[in-house]
Amino acid sequence: MSGILYIVPTPIGNLSDISQRALDVLSEVSLIAAEDTRHSGQLLHHYGIGTKTISLHDHNEAQRTQILIKKLSEGESIALISDAGTPLISDPGYTLVSTCRAHKLKVIALPGPCALTTALSASGLPTDQFMFSGFLPVKQKAKQDAITSAAKRHMTCVFYESPRRVKDTILTCIDVLPALHHIVLAKELSKHFETYISGSAQEVLSWLEEDQAHQKGEFVLMLYCKAPNDEALPAQAIALLNQLGALLPPKQAAAVVSEHYKLNKKQLYEYALANKTK
Ligand code: SAM
Q1: Angle, to 10 degrees, between the axis of helix 140-151 and the axis of helix 166-176?
Q2: Residue 141's beta-bridge partner residues?
Q3: How far is the CA of 12 from the centre of ligand 1 (A)?
Q4: 130 strand-pairing partners
């Protein structure tokens, strides 16, 4: 019988954020593949886990995958962890997991800490749809393009950002984002200095510049640009819609204006609904 590869999330700052199941799996497997064995050694030591570890990081993943696939095929179960949070989310593990799947080996992921979901859930930005794009490109033009196209998605876009680049990234946001945008910068999640800064790129920049300490730590950047709706409607159409809105239900008012000005009925209806007086 083959073994199981467990994907085990570990804390992103607060050592208590590890599940009992994660601790059980880490104790029971025959080997833990860790991004940095010295770093994870502290966590394992803290919880009295003596399981053997092997390194698996960006530079040795292909070679390690061969070794681990062999062990799994021979019946050993293995846990994969990264330095913090959920493995494979901007962390190593993709080659290993995809190769396991190709070999029909069982992979079980445990639910647990992840900076992406933690930041998003408390951001106050829309969560019905969102995009996660890992780290932004370092080169300026590519970064500008990435932020511009994220803004056009009209959904919450989430990025990881390093303290070295956070200020530069916010400056880029000031350059390329449309006037109506909303940024939330989540810093040091689950740690002592956890902070959420919410507002325009200019307001976030002011906060970062207020104190050098504000630029230190780990960051999740979230941005949201609402789809243009009423702004795109001609002023005469809005005026007529407002007049009719006082007399008719939104659906009928939208239908009349749509017919008269040959405009999108749904967009007019949404506007009428949001501004309804009748
Ligand atoms: N796999 C991890 C996860 O599940 O979130 C992410 C690993 S990625 C290499 C590290 C980045 O995640 C950091 O640079 C930062 O952008 C974000 N991050 C990790 N921990 C964080 C925290 N406590 N607060 C804010 N951001 C964090």
Answers
A1: 60
A2: none
A3: 7
A4: 156
Alpha helices by DSSP H, the chain? 20-28, 37-46, 61-73, 94-102, 115-123, 140-151, 166-176, 201-210, 235-245, 250-261, 265-274
The answer to whether the CB of 272 is under 6 A from ligand 1 is no
The pLDDT tens digits for 169-190 are 999 999 999 888 999 999 999 9
DSSP H or E segment with residue 17: none
Helix (H, G, I), strand (E, B) or coil at 130: strand
pLDDT digits (tens, 9 = 90+) for 11-53: 999 999 999 999 999 999 999 999 999 999 999 999 999 999 9
Residue type, 196: Y
To 10 degrees, what angle do helices 235-245 and 250-261 make? 150
Model-level pTM?
0.84
220 Cβ below 6 A of ligand 1:
yes
